């Protein structure tokens, strides 16, 4: 019966050029003007006052970056959807706001036409430097210099450097360093630009993974290799470029403190929740030659790898702007604080840093956030904070916006009784240590006859940052000048640090001598930090210099085998990897025992993942191993830090979106590595842990789907006037049923249940208003996060194929065309003529056309509640 069928609509080639953004002009009906979050819904620390001084007009876009010029005027960079025509495009630019003496908005104007979507802005020596991210703008990704032609409009636009890559993980911030150089921050999907100096501080980087990696279970960042996200440095003319540091995922902003030290706030990968390689958002001290250990998929390095540097872990979130309180009329504690912004949960945190040798450690607190995060039970309005700046008046100004949400400009003043005298920056206990570190950094990338004698003492430093800087400098010197000295060294830290440099730079012929040198330091007699460093040196030698000879491997097993298992969780995990790699015949039995004793889900999965690479098994061990894929982990514990991060974000724990697919892929790889006869026996009895039906069909705690008939092709204007009704006396049961019937559960998680191919909706109300959520349901292609975009491949034979890229190698791409079906297509890269992101959301239109307006309001309430039946939206 086709009487209720909706008319078909031709979408061309999945909305790719030349069709453009097909839903851009779709009529949505009349809707009320959107407003920025009111200050009544915002918490700030005692003594601080927040004001909303301007709500963005539609023609001002959605703000993603904030800076100020030499006159104290604020420069705001907007994002917009694609322009409908060239005339509209030409009228877009940066928004400049002039403030009056009281901090109120006196004037607003559009400048620098037609440049926008600058995710980095800096005013320096009469010019605006802008890092444009080719996400919605017409300009390509790159560093631009904007000059004034005498009309105060800054429309003389010059490209200084092109960047290969764009989007949410493309190029971001630009800041001015104390050396009068520009520092530019790029996300992990941005290629290192051409022309970088070979003498750059950051060099000699590699993946450095001992056992095979698994790409992300949903294909995010598949094929992305080291260096990952990075910082480059250049002069104001953009002539000489150096790779300064790397190993980030996707930090958005940079900031220097008064000591001239550089910091960033790196992003987590929320799809990794529940996995041992999950790394929270983290503040990184960005130093010359610094390596911060991000690798794609399961490859992320532990924080204690001695060839990387640590972090101040913050927790869940999506990092946006950062900045120090320098120049603020705040108490000295907050003038010294690094303020970091979490877009997802609306938190502006003050990070209080203390010197730790030549680097830093720190603590943090909520400075500004939704009222519901600070006062349980209070409303938790979205606060999509994007950037901040300290104004000339000593107040902090911050913006909200991004992904098309309503923007606001806010002002934070201190109104308390503490002194706001300018904080002194020369009282820091780490001044001398950082000065020494900088002396060492002079030799980064630069051979010098004076280097080795100067460096050698500092290889034995108790300060991790000093040892790291000395090793990077040593690797820049000719190997012949220090090889023998490294092999002969007897001081533990000096020897281990120098031998790590040798493992990273020496050839295969040096491996036997390196292993002999390590024998001077029995692992069992070393403190844990040195023992872990020794294991890492062995790993790096195996990775970079090749697998040891069978005899050498046997000796390694004899010496390391008795140490596993020990009392240290970290040592156990590193030893397990090494012994699996060296084919220890006893390691499978030992690891299975440790899996059974694992105190947390993360510990158990770490062993489960690495054990798939072992080669020596009995049939019983195979049976026991694969049984772990069937285990119910819902009651397993998590590390205390993980539980705290979820609590601080104001949401319940949930496994990440890639969790189930990771397990499927581990199991598949374990089977693929087995001999054919063993595999046949296992597969004949194996009941798979995660079935191959459409991903994560409704679980038993959700109702079964009900057949529905067409009701109406709902438009935004039909429902926006009713949105206030979604905030009280709604039905939890009907909202949950609609979540199933509208097929939301097939792709979206709420709590621990649901699919993983779309955004997790558990805490979506922390970053989007009801209107934003409704708009995403009715017009899913209007704004699509890059994480969830599909890729369209145009093939040389004239065909095209669209799907999620789940794996990429030098030779081929693997796509999943249907997110609800475990079917994959391999495409050789030689067959591909062009590739581009699809402008259509994987989520189809019309999913709620089979439900009533009351059902939609209940659905919005259910989503806002995060699946919690006791939420305020269900109370009368």
Any descriptors?
single chain; 876 residues; alpha+beta; five-stranded antiparallel β-sheet; 22 helices
Give an overview of the whole structure.
With 876 residues, this protein is an alpha+beta fold. It is built from 22 helices and 32 strands. The strands form 8 sheets. The protein has a 5-stranded antiparallel β-sheet with strand order 1-22-21-20-19. It has a 5-stranded antiparallel β-sheet with strand order 31-30-29-28-32, with no helix packed on it. It has a 4-stranded antiparallel β-sheet with strand order 2-25-24-23, with no helix packed on it. A hairpin with a 5-residue loop joins strand 3 (62-68) and strand 4. Helix 6 packs parallel to helix 8. Mean pLDDT is 90; it is low at 12-31 and 688-699.
Number of strands: 32
Number of helices: 22
C-alpha end-to-end distance: 41 Å
Instruction: Detail the poorly predicted runs.
Output: 12-31, 688-699
Radius of gyration: 28 Å
Q: How much strand content do the residues show?
A: 15-25%
Mean pLDDT across every amino acid position: 90
The 3D shape can be described as globular
The proportion of residues forming helix, as a percent range, comes to 10-25%
**Global structural class:** alpha+beta
The main sheet comes to: 5 strands, antiparallel
Counting copies of identical and different chains, the oligomeric state is single chain
Q: How do the strands of the widest beta sheet line up side by side?
A: 1-22-21-20-19
Write the layout of secondary structure elements.
Elements: E1 42-44, E2 48-55, E3 62-68, E4 74-79, H1 86-90, E5 94-99, E6 105-111, E7 118-124, E8 127-132, E9 142-147, E10 156-162, E11 171-176, E12 182-186, E13 229-234, E14 241-248, E15 254-256, E16 262-266, E17 281-286, E18 312-315, E19 319-324, H2 332-335, E20 338-342, E21 347-356, E22 359-370, H3 371-374, E23 385-390, E24 396-400, E25 408-414, H4 431-441, H5 451-459, H6 464-475, H7 483-488, H8 492-505, H9 511-518, H10 528-545, H11 550-560, H12 569-581, H13 587-597, H14 601-611, H15 619-627, H16 640-649, H17 659-672, H18 676-685, H19 716-719, H20 732-741, E26 749-750, E27 753-754, H21 770-778, E28 791-795, E29 800-808, E30 812-816, E31 825-828, E32 832-837, H22 853-865
Antiparallel strand pairs: 1-22, 2-25, 3-4, 4-5, 5-6, 7-8, 8-9, 9-10, 11-12, 12-13, 13-14, 15-16, 16-17, 17-18, 19-20, 20-21, 21-22, 23-24, 24-25, 26-27, 28-29, 28-32, 29-30, 30-31
Helix pairs in contact: 4-6, 5-6, 5-8, 6-8, 8-9, 8-10, 9-10, 10-12, 12-14, 13-14, 20-22
């Amino acid at each position: 019966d086709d009487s209720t069928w909706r008319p078909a609509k031709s979408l061309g080639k999945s909305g790719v050029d030349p069709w453009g953004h097909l839903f851009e002009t779709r009529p949505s009906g009349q809707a009320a003007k959107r407003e920025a979050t009111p200050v009544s819904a915002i918490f700030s620390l005692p003594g601080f006052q927040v004001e909303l001084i301007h709500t963005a007009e539609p023609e001002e876009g959605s703000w993603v970056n904030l800076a100020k010029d030499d006159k104290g005027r604020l420069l705001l960079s907007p994002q917009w959807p694609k322009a409908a025509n060239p005339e509209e495009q030409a009228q877009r630019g940066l928004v400049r706001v002039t403030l009056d003496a009281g901090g109120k908005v006196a004037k607003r104007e559009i400048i620098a036409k037609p440049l926008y979507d600058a995710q980095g802005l800096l005013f320096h020596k009469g010019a605006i430097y802008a890092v444009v991210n080719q996400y919605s703008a017409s300009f390509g990704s790159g560093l631009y210099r904007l000059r004034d032609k005498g009309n105060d409009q800054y429309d003389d636009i010059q490209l200084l450097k092109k960047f290969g890559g764009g989007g949410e993980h493309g190029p971001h911030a630009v800041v001015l360093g104390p050396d009068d150089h520009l520092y530019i921050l790029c996300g992990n999907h941005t290629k290192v630009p051409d022309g970088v100096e070979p003498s750059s501080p950051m060099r000699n980087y590699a993946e450095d993974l001992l056992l095979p990696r698994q790409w992300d279970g949903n294909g995010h960042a598949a094929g992305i290799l080291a260096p990952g996200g990075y910082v480059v440095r250049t002069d104001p003319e953009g002539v000489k470029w150096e790779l300064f540091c790397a190993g980030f995922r996707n930090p958005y902003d940079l900031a220097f403190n008064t000591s001239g030290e550089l910091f960033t706030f790196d992003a987590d990968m929320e799809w990794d929740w529940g996995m041992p390689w999950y790394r929270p958002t983290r503040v990184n001290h960005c130093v010359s030659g610094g390596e911060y250990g991000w690798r794609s998929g399961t490859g992320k390095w532990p924080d204690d790898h001695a060839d990387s540097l640590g972090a101040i872990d913050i927790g869940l979130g999506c990092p946006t702007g950062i900045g120090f309180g320098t120049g603020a009329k705040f108490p000295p504690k907050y003038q010294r604080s690094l303020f970091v912004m979490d877009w997802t949960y609306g938190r502006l945190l003050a990070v209080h840093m203390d010197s730790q040798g030549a680097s830093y450690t720190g603590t943090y607190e909520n400075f500004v956030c939704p009222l519901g995060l600070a006062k349980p039970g209070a409303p938790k309005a979205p606060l999509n904070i994007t950037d901040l700046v300290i104004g000339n008046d000593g107040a902090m100004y911050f913006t909200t916006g991004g992904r098309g949400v309503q923007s606001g400009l806010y002002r934070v003043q201190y109104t308390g009784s503490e002194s706001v005298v300018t904080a002194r920056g020369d009282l820091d206990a780490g001044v001398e240590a950082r000065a020494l570190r900088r002396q060492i950094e002079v030799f980064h990338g630069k051979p010098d006859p004076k280097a080795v004698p100067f460096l050698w003492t500092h290889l034995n430093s108790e300060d991790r940052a000093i040892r790291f800087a000395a090793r990077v400098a040593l690797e820049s010197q000719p190997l012949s000048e220090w090889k023998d000295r490294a092999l002969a060294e007897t001081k533990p830290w000096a020897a281990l640090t120098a031998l790590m440099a040798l493992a990273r730079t020496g050839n295969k012929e040096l491996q036997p001598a390196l292993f002999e040198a390590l024998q001077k330091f029995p692992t069992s007699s070393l403190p844990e930090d040195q023992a872990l460093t020794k294991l890492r040196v062995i790993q790096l030698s195996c990775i970079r210099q090749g697998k040891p000879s069978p005899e050498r491997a046997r000796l390694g097993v004899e010496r390391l085998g008795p140490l596993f298992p020990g009392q240290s969780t970290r040592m156990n995990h590193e030893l397990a990897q090494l012994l699996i790699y060296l084919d220890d015949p006893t390691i499978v039995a030992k690891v299975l025992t440790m899996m059974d004793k694992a105190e947390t889900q993360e510990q158990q999965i770490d062993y489960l993942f690495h054990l798939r690479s072992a080669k020596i098994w009995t049939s019983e061990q195979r049976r026991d191993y694969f049984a772990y894929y069937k285990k119910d982990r819902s009651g397993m514990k998590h590390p205390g830090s993980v539980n705290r991060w979820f609590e601080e974000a104001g949401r319940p724990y949930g496994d990440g979106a890639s969790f189930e697919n990771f397990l499927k892929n581990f199991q598949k790889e374990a089977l693929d590595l087995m001999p054919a006869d063993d595999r046949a026996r296992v597969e004949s009895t194996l009941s798979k842990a995660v079935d191959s039906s459409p991903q994560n069909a409704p679980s038993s705690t959700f109702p079964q789907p009900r057949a529905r008939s067409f009701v109406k092709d709902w438009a935004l204007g039909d429902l926006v006037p009713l949105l206030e009704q979604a905030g009280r006396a709604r039905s939890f049961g009907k909202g949950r049923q609609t979540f199933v019937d509208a097929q939301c559960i097939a792709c979206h998680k709420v709590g621990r249940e649901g699919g993983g191919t779309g955004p997790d909706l558990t805490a979506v109300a922390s970053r989007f208003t009801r209107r934003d959520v409704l708009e995403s349901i009715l017009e899913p292609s209007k704004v699509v996060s890059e994480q969830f975009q599909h890729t369209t491949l145009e093939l040389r034979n004239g065909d095209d194929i669209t799907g999620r890229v789940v794996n990429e190698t030098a030779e081929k791409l693997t796509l999943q065309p249907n997110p609800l079906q475990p079917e994959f297509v391999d495409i050789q890269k030689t067959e591909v003529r062009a590739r581009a992101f699809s402008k259509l959301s994987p989520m189809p239109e019309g999913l709620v056309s089979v439900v009533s307006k009351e059902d939609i309001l209940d659905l919005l309430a259910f989503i806002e509640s995060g699946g919690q039946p006791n939420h305020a939206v269900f109370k009368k």
